[in-house]
Specification:
The protein is α+β, with helices and mostly antiparallel strands. Helix content is about 35%, strand content about 15%.
């Protein structure tokens, strides 16, 4: 599978999943998630997927300073409804990394390891998304502001040309390269920019 080279430069997120350890799926439960995992989940790479990745990374760093975050022990809440805007895409990325699931999620084993009910929507808050540690109750709210990194000026025209009937490979490639260049700027150049990923 060939992907843009910058995918490999995006900082990974490490978590420990006690369920994965208990079931022998991952030695010690230590799991490494990379941006490509979010891309596979969403089926594409865009500013929304990038923002979801960066918000999740920032939240876990804030909640677990000097520790490895514990997958399955984090509640994720969204301000918007599931069917509103890009909420579902953002929630999917956060769920991938944290293990938080809605009512259809894993129910647990012998009263342990449940993930269902940990992903909620339409929760009043000032931020866009809230992550909460179940053990301590500590939480953090975040919002992402992709407008901090303006879309390339030619992007609209390139998109039009790429989607036109009979568009050739060069037109499609020009749009794709410019699009991913925008995503790269978000993920690499502004990964730790508080103007892009704001903690509220």
């Amino acid at each position: 599978m060939q992907t843009p080279a910058f995918f490999d430069a995006v900082p990974a997120i490490f978590v420990v999943d006690p369920l994965a350890d208990a079931l022998g799926a991952v030695e010690g439960g230590l799991i490494e998630y990379r941006y490509i995992d979010a891309v596979k989940l969403a089926g594409h790479s865009c500013p929304t997927v990038a923002g979801a990745w960066l918000m999740t990374r920032a939240a876990l760093a804030r909640l677990y300073p000097g520790e490895t975050p514990r997958r399955g022990e984090i509640r994720v809440e969204m301000r918007q409804a599931l069917d509103e805007g890009v909420t579902g895409v953002i929630a999917g990325v956060a769920s991938l990394v944290t293990g938080a699931a809605n009512e259809g999620g894993f129910k647990g084993l012998a009263g342990r390891f449940a993930r269902n009910g940990l992903l909620r929507f339409g929760v009043p808050m000032s931020g866009e998304i809230r992550f909460t540690r179940l053990d301590s109750g500590q939480s953090v709210e975040l919002s992402h502001r992709p407008q901090v990194v303006p879309r390339p000026a030619a992007l609209g025209e390139l998109l039009r040309d790429a989607l036109a009937p009979g568009a050739d490979a060069a037109a499609r490639r020009a749009f794709a390269d410019t699009w991913q260049g925008w995503v790269q700027a978000l993920l690499i150049d502004h990964a730790d920019d508080p103007a892009l990923i704001a903690t509220t």
